[in-house]
Amino acid sequence: MPLESAFLRFFMRLLILFASLLLAAPVWAAKPNVLLIVADDLGYNDVGFQGSKEIPTPHLDKLAAQSLRCTNGYVSHPFCSPTRAGLMTGRYQHRFGHENNPAWLPESTTAGLALSETTFPALMQQAGYATGAVGKWHLGAHPQFHPMKRGFDEYFGALGGGHVYFPGDKGGPEYQIPLNRNGKDEAQTKYLTEQFGDEAAAFVARHADGKPWMLYLAFNAPHTPLQAPQEWLEKLKHIENTSRRTYAAMICALDAAIGGVMAKLDETKQRENTLIYFVSDNGGPNLAGKSGTNFTDNSPLRGAKGAVYEGGMRVPFLVSWPVKIKPGVYDQPVIALDFLPTSLAAAESSDLTPNNLDGVNLLPFLTGETSAAPHELLFWRSGGPGGNNAVRRGRMKLVRLGQTTAELYDLAADVGETKNLAAEKPEVVKDLTAAIAEWEKGTVAPTFESPKAGKPTAKKKKK
Ligand code: CA
After folding, report:
1. pLDDT value at position 21?
2. Are 178 and 187 in contact (CB under 8 A)?
3. For 223-242, what is each residue's pLDDT tens digit?
4. Domain holding 131: CATH number?
5. 387 Cα to the center of ligand 1, angstroms
6. Which of 366, 395, 425 is at the close of a domain?
7. How many CA atoms lie within 13 A of 222 on its CB side?
8. Which end of the chain is more exposed for a tag (fewer CB within 10 A), N or C?
9. Main-chain phi, psi angles of 112, to 5 degrees
């Protein structure tokens, strides 16, 4: 056989081999897994990738380095349950009256995520996904609100608004309820953050060879009660304020638990094609520790959990999808309501996206396909109609506390909301006030009350 034809045949075989590899749908062309990680009451500046020098978070920092870090990333509420209602629906939760925390009322069919709403996991099920939730639920105690009634195939976690961290530790009744696995009580076996991390890692391993999956991993850490493992407390002796040290140790445990999940993704070769979101459900709370000073750090933002200032709802915000999204920084305003439509788009199932969403598909923006802003306007309200409002348009933000005061800030120049420009720019105030009024037409009054405070100061009634 002449040398040339042997070479030609070898070359043709190589070509066929390449073509068949391409046709066999490479891994990255398959639907991505979706992992939504939520921290609870995490301070804006209390993880390494946000600038903390005090609290070591190597695993989150590594994830951040693999992510597009959204520096103007928001959640839709400055406290727990309403943010989760927004996350689960892609809609402003005010549209269906979910503006407060539901009390732990297993007999109440109203205190929970309205059954009228279509949920994120239910849509992912329709897109062919296995769906699981691990951690804090806080979207209703009645059995009709159970995660497995709202789109999750499996669940393990604490159904209330929080939980004690060590088995048998001190905490209110809601924080003492047994953990729940697929509708049945189950004992807590270890430090809760670690147990949630283990459960999430097991989910990742269990679904490695099956259909694509979505996992909602909602830690209750570092929300109170302040309870941390001794090993972390010892590593954080440089933090003098003992409340802050415990809070920091809870964040370290959270970081380690997330590290365990990331390691399992790597080990099962799923990391490259897993779309990961990381947010806190609201800003760090303003809780004075034993020393009398606050122990969470939202700097450089103003305010804390509960406020419609940036410290209440601008949060650490990461989006990572190695095969599709280049790591870096993204600075246009985005909101956690966007996760639902973004995930459906990533799953090539945008046709399932409901037409009543407030969230948008972020993929064209995060991949650089377009440089436009994903949102013209973003809105917040806490305390029902007449409560505290905020609206952001571009760099400008209007804050309205009750019906009386209007404050205007230029966030691009003044992220700490220190200089009220309302008197200087009455036209902008007028425009944004009108935008709030228009938005409020699409909202309703809260359908249930928080078990305790949560009302704006301006609206408090005298007893
Ligand atoms: Ca929270």
Report:
1. 52
2. yes
3. 999 999 999 999 999 999 99
4. 3.40.720.10
5. 20
6. 366
7. 31
8. C
9. 175, 180
Query: Based on the domain organization, do 151 and 128 belong to the same domain?
Result: yes
Q: Please check whether residues 292 and 413 belong to one and the same domain.
A: no
Higher pLDDT, 439 or 12: 439
Å from CA of 162 to ligand 1 middle: 9
Average pLDDT over residues 33-62: 98
Mean pLDDT across the chain, nearest whole number? 93
Q: What percent of the chain has pLDDT over 90?
A: 86
| 384 in the same domain as 360 | no
Helices 339-346, 80-89: inter-axial angle, 10-degree rounding: 30
Instruction: Name the one residue in this structure whose structure tokens are 């909101």.
Output: 335
Which residues are catalytic, by number? Answer: 80, 138
Query: 158: CA distance to ligand 1 center in Å?
Result: 14
Kindly report the backbone phi and psi dihedral angles of residue 284, in degrees, each rounded to the nearest multiple of 5, phi listed first: -65, 140
Closest CA to 325 of 368, 361, 278: 368
How many angstroms separate the alpha carbon of residue 337 from the centre of ligand 1?
16
What pLDDT is attached to residue 341?
98
Stronger pLDDT, 70 or 18, i.e. the higher one: 70
Q: Choose the final residue of a domain: 366, 393, 411.
A: 366
Omega within 30 of 0 (cis) for the link into 300: yes
Is 445 a domain residue?
A: no
Its domain, for residue 361, covers 33-366
Question: Among 329, 250, 306, 314, which Cα is nearest to 280's?
Answer: 314
Number of structural domains the chain divides into: 2
The model carries a pTM of 0.92
Residues 156 and 82 grouped into a single domain? yes
Give the pLDDT score at 381: 98
Clarify whether residues 277 and 382 are in a common domain.
Answer: no
Quickly state the pLDDT bin for 453 (edges 50, 70, 90).
Answer: very low
User: DSSP letter string over 381-443?
Assistant: EESSTTSEEEEEETTEEEEEETTTEEEEEETTT-TT--S--TTT-HHHHHHHHHHHHHHHTT-
At 206 the three-state DSSP class reads helix
Is 13 inside a domain boundary? Answer: no
Q: What is the CATH number of the domain that holds 408?
A: 3.30.1120.10
258 in any annotated domain: yes
Q: Is 26 helix (H, G, I), strand (E, B) or coil?
A: coil
Name residues with Cβ closer than 5 Å to ligand 1, which is an ion.
Answer: 40-41, 80, 281-282
Per DSSP, which regions of 195-290 are E strands?
Answer: 213-218, 274-280
Shared-domain flag, residues 420 and 275: no
Asked whether residue 10 is assigned to any structural domain, the reply reads: no
Alpha carbon of 188 to ligand 1 centroid (Å): 21
Maximum CA pair distance of the chain? 102
User: Same domain, yes or no, for 181 and 61?
Assistant: yes
Report pLDDT for 403.
81
